[in-house]
Design brief:
With 178 residues, the protein is of the alpha/beta class. It is built from six helices and seven strands; from the N terminus they run αββααβαβαβββα. Helix 5 links the parallel strand 4 and strand 5. Helix 4 runs parallel beside helix 5.
Amino acid sequence: MEPEERSLAGLFMSFQSPVEIPGVNNIDFLQMAYNARRRQLGEPELGPIEFYAYIYPKLELVNMKTDFLNRNVNEGFSGGEKKRNEILQLAVLGADLAILDEIDSGLDVDALRDVAQAVNGILTSKNSVLMITHYRRLLEFIKPAFIHIMDDGRIVKTGDASIAQILEEGGYKAISDV
């Protein structure tokens, strides 16, 4: 599926290195994407004032200031700002399934905590998040229901959070021994 088709179907994908979109500010991008999803669901679009009321609590969720809305999408953003912006997009779009590729990559501890808190705030019984990470530190803030260990493109082990500790301490060999 094309990216816009995936989005309309309720799938959200974040990337390790989010792209910059020069000339497109965040508020316009988010409102257009949000209203496209609403149209897909047969719901009425929100005008600018209603959308601002909708998005404001989402900014608080990801610890972003309102001036980010007037900046071009990811243009000149730090790594932490890009990750927060991606999670803001997820919060606004309300995806059914989110695939988060290394949302912890390049984040300092404060940004990691903010991003994790926002992901935890987005999770409901009606949506799912698949996180891809190479580091256990993210799991200190987001408690997964399941962990899947991949090796060479295949899931080789599934379990609870204790598997991440085993992997970190003993590498892939330790996982195959469990």
